[in-house]
Write a structure and sequence with these properties.
394 residues, 17 helices, mainly alpha
Length: 394
């Protein structure tokens, strides 16, 4: 924690004290001046909060600073209402504007804590992303060594987080690290699928062995996060939901290995409830299937067409309160399945990922601008997969 909270509130308290000494506490001018102070604090917080989130240490410090500022704002409100002879209407107005600040600081503390995952997974990405689902992973690393590397790296960072965060922020950080782990694993798999799909050859040397290795990886990661359930029982819901996605992916690939489209229906339904886009769900399933059994892709497409009416009946659910309260902030990347998938698909429907991704990279080319014809990058599958599946460090 830094001196940010003390710096901000020492000035705010001085301004409030000056107003109390020089203005009638029952005057409209006093209430207006108080509102100006708090409105300015709100404006400055929104304006500068992201400048504190540039690395692991700064995210930890900012999360502590912001939660302390939320608590301090409650104390300021209570003290102001006790020492000022305000009408009920004026007191209500003060409570409303300070409540907004309290919520803002609290949400920013959560956002900063959860942003830690970007910096936690940066070394993990460099260490294992290229090797996951490769030949050595399948044949040589029989004890799920790469999954253990992920778990041990996360645990190293957790040791630091336990020293600098209280239980509330630590639990919120775990709320992000759990999906970050599952989405990182899935993203690595999808990178392989997207690169390999145009070859129409089986990616693994031995499907049974690869599926067994995936099962071991999933269990290794889940066992680690299960170890936090004693301290944070509510994490069970997050763990079940996030690892349920990986298990659904595994079941689809197992169904492909068994050449049984019917066995894939339930896991497809689970994934579609996350994506809520039939075309993207279909392409995801086709790519996963293609890793194991690319020769029966047409059979799978007929099955997907058959179940399409059932998928279309699933509609988006209302956004939860926490998501709504953070609507004006950039999303924390890498925590949701629809983010991972939609980063490799444009808004166009019915076009294969490879073609859609090619157009997306053309639109985002930082060298030549929109609509460029840079064949060296825009038409290179490895380049655009790397761009679409990478996690920006910011």
């Amino acid at each position: 924690m830094t001196t940010l909270c003390e710096d901000v509130f020492s000035l705010a308290n001085l301004e409030i004290q000056t107003l109390q000494e020089n203005l009638s506490k029952q005057s409209d001018l006093f209430l207006l001046a108080i509102n100006v102070i708090f409105s300015r604090m709100h404006l400055r917080q929104v304006q500068y909060r992201d400048t504190f989130l540039h690395d692991f240490d700064s995210c930890c410090a900012a999360s502590n600073d912001f939660i302390h500022m939320s608590e301090q704002m409650e104390e300021v409100t209570s003290r102001l209402l006790e020492t000022s002879e305000l009408s009920e209407e004026s007191a209500t107005a003060i409570r409303e504007i300070t409540a907004e600040l309290i919520v803002l600081y609290g949400n920013d503390a959560i956002y900063a804590a959860q942003s830690v995952h970007v910096h936690v997974f940066e070394p993990i990405r460099h260490a294992i992303s290229d090797d996951l689902f490769g030949w050595e992973w399948e044949d040589k690393l029989t004890r799920n060594e790469l999954a253990l590397t992920l778990v041990r790296t996360v645990d190293d960072f957790m040791s630091d987080l336990k020293k600098c965060m209280g239980d509330f922020l630590l639990k919120k950080t775990l709320d992000a690290l759990i999906p970050a782990s599952t989405m990182f694993y899935l993203r690595c798999l999808l990178r392989k699928a997207t690169i390999k799909r145009h070859n129409r050859v089986i990616h693994f040397f031995n499907n049974e062995k690869a599926l067994g290795r995936m099962q071991g990886d999933i269990e290794t990661m889940q066992e680690y996060f299960d170890s936090f359930l004693y301290a944070f029982p509510p994490l069970k819901r997050v763990i079940d939901a996030e690892f349920g996605i990986l298990r659904a992916v595994h079941e689809i690939m197992k169904a492909a290995n068994d050449n049984s489209c019917g066995d894939a229906f339930d896991p497809i339904l689970l994934l579609h409830k996350q994506l809520l886009d039939v075309s993207i769900t279909n392409q995801l399933v086709i790519d996963l299937w293609g890793l194991v059994d690319p020769k029966n892709e047409e059979k799978l497409k007929k099955f997907l067409k058959l179940i399409m009416p059932k998928l279309r009946k699933i509609t988006p659910q209302p956004t939860d309160d926490v998501a709504r309260s953070l609507e004006n902030r950039p999303k924390i990347l890498g925590l949701r399945l629809n983010e991972v998938i939609k980063r490799v698909a444009s808004d166009d429907r019915g076009i294969g990922w490879r073609q859609r991704m090619r157009h997306d990279v053309q639109n985002m080319c930082g060298v030549h601008g929109n609509g460029c014809n840079c064949n060296s990058m825009c038409l290179n599958p490895r380049d655009f997969v790397e761009i679409m599946y990478s996690i920006p460090a910011k």
